[in-house]
Amino acid sequence: MVICSLASGSKGNCTLVSDGRTHILVDAGISARRVAAALKPFHLTPRDIACVLVTHEHSDHIRGLRHLSLPVIAPPSTCDALEREGHIPELTEISGPDFEVGSLGVTAFPTPHDTPESMGFLIHMGAFRAAVCTDLGFVPDEVLARLRGAQYLLLEANHDVDLLRRGPYPPFLKDRVLSRRGHLSNEACANAVAECARSGLRRVTLCHLSEENNSPDLALAAVAERLYAMGATPGRDVLLDTAPQGGAAIPFTGFAC
User: Fold this and answer.
1) Which pTM does this prediction carry?
2) Structural domain of residue 74, as residue ranges?
3) 250: in domain
């Protein structure tokens, strides 16, 4: 089993999920060359990837698809957008929440973001479940219900609200990020992690951190503070780390490792 953020943030998003038999990517917002280089440490090439699950059509999630030439599974409106771009050999619309990709089970769930459709994914490997949930303005109860089923969670912690409000973004962009169809704050992320920690969550990788409006230390501190407040100890009860913008995060290979 391997789950690893290969890139995360506004410059590109891509996550590898593998149970050792079926290998998939969630998003491909970096170049095909970068994808190939990121897969090498796992002894994989793009030809080994069964498909790319696409969360939505923003460029930082689809940039590499054209040159990867891999099958894509995505929300219907995202498929429409990709079809107009061309060069995708096989496009499959998500028509229901549950489907399979090889030996992996997948549950797709809608997330609130400023696109016609945006999805998160809960990926089943036998009894183990991992969730990839990024690009959402808040965490609705329906999304939280899906995340509570995961032992491993890759969740957006985009910004510190005070940094964003004081920062260089123009007002319209600040409003977009702070909206309920924007991006998730450290505080909102921390609250979701705390709720999931009551339901068996063991490890969290904080992703899609803004370079201008956040830092790994701020994001980790916000989540750790919330966990302590509920009586959980970060590093013991829930392992925490962050996904960097420019490269791969620490791979998850199972809790015994």
Assistant:
1) 0.95
2) 2-242
3) no
